Amino acid sequence: MPLRAYPALSRRGLLAAAGGLGAASVLAACGGADEEEPEGAGGASGPFAFLDERDGQEVELESVPTKVVAFTGLAAALYDYGVEVAAVFGPTTLADGAPDLQAGRLPVEELTVLGNAWGEFDVEQFAELGPQLIVSHYYEGFDLWFVPEDRLEEVEALAPGIGIEVSKPKLDQIIDRHASLAKALGADLESEANSAAVERFGAAAGSVAAAFGENPMKVLAVGAWPDGLYIANPPTFNVLAKCVELGVDLVVPDNPDQNGYWELLSWENADKYEADAIFLDIRTNGIPADVLLADYPTWAALPAVAAGHVYGWNAEPVYSHVGGAIELERIAEGLAAAKPLGG
Description:
- By secondary structure, this protein is α/β, with parallel strands linked by helices.
- It has two domains: 11-188, Nitrogenase molybdenum iron protein domain (Rossmann fold); 196-337, 3-Layer(aba) Sandwich (Rossmann fold).
- It contains eleven helices and eleven strands.
């Protein structure tokens, strides 16, 4: 989200850095055999009810909606459970057409993206789809994520909206909420693929605990932007909080911003915190590791960087059991590969 998941000194700066709104193709229910071809939408019937976490009120419909429009990251989670939506909006593709990180395993080549930048939301095409429901993530103070504020009333006049809170609950709770929405939309959570995904998530969590237990060290999670190095505050990022719960010794910054997400360090002061391993936010709006190494000497001089102990983490993972597992597996691999610099 803006002031939280995305480091920015002002809301305007945050929104400028944030990514993109899009809308996409008409999709139907899906079923497949594994995580790449999700299995599960069984065509639920009967009334539909689901909690909108923006205001604590249930959204009730006479029947299960078949024309659902979703924020790309949320649509990616639904896709992992076997539910495809009528359209998407949010960061979907990169300039070369490759999937954005938040698109997860969505078949982006099949999507019609109406806008791939913050503030772009084609309300006219949204209306033409005949939407029955719009769903997005919710961060306190920002309503439906990636729906332009000046178009929100118009959008929700065309279809009721649901927001899923992703800034405060624990990772497991957020994933369970996405799974519950998928079930409400017709996913079979007991399918072979979905059952395997739950097991994979549990195993991935175990691998993080095991990797750190066998190889304890001081770990620093950061994001890198031109204005400085952002030190992530573990309690306010659900992925990092999960790692702490699993025993990982993550640096807690002593001067986070007013939202509690980051401490901004100038590049001259990038060495404020000592760490044996650094996990760099790999979202596409940040500076990638190779550019940091080539163009930012104070980064290159950090002991963990010089030792090659730089690994990736994603501050906005796809909140499905598959997506959560992939993120925890990525972190576990880094923890297993690094070594304490003291010996």
